[in-house]
Amino acid sequence: xxxxxxxxxxxxxxxxxxxxxxCEQNLNHDAMYWYRQDPGQGLRLIYYSQIVNDFQKGxxxxxxxxxxxxxxxxxxxxxxxxxxPTAFYLCASSSEDRGRETQYFGPGTRLLVL
Amino acid sequence: xxxxxxxxxxxxNEEEPVHLPCNHSTISGTDYIHWYRQLPSQGPEYxxxxxxxxxxxxxxxxxxxxxxxxxxxxxxxxTLRDAAVYYCILRDWDSGSRxxxxxxxxxxxxx
Lengths: 114, 111
Description:
Distance between the termini of chain B: 37 Å
Number of helices of chain B: 0
Largest interface: A-B, 32 and 26 residues
Oligomer: heterodimer
Order of helices and strands of chain B: EEEEEEEEE
Low-confidence stretches of chain B: none
Radius of gyration of chain B: 13 Å
Helix content of chain B: under 10%
């Protein structure tokens, strides 16, 4: 089945540690996105990529980094510079980065700081 | 993207229709109206979208006011699985990137 997978479902980070969240899609979509969701809040855009080898900062990129070496993969690294990383992280993709297109979301990764 | 206003919460009974309203008085001519929903501890799920005409799909119907300043998501027969937060979002036809999620409407479905 086509879709988006995120792993792991839960991730624990120690203080000062970098962690990487995985996002893979087999929908053949060009555009991919990372969002952060805090409890009771809406989603906020961290980074997005419209095409392979290109990505742009979203609203809250500080303390995060991404890469887009393959069309189907868009991993997110939460660095030690992100002081409050505890949140629900959601990856999405769409066929192209246009407002008329639907975004498809993965199941999310919940990151907790020990 | 223009702003939308939704009620914080609504309740419905199982197997009854549900009408979820959304106001978007500053909508522009090129804004699509999108609806997504988010079940507990899951990623958002696309429901429906439209521009001017009413739209139907297997999940729901979208009724758009003639002046486009408001819209209503209609679930024809609510089930317990429809309990979720429903987000109404405007997106310009051409620009993309961020989906601006507000706080949405928490729908409770009573058995």
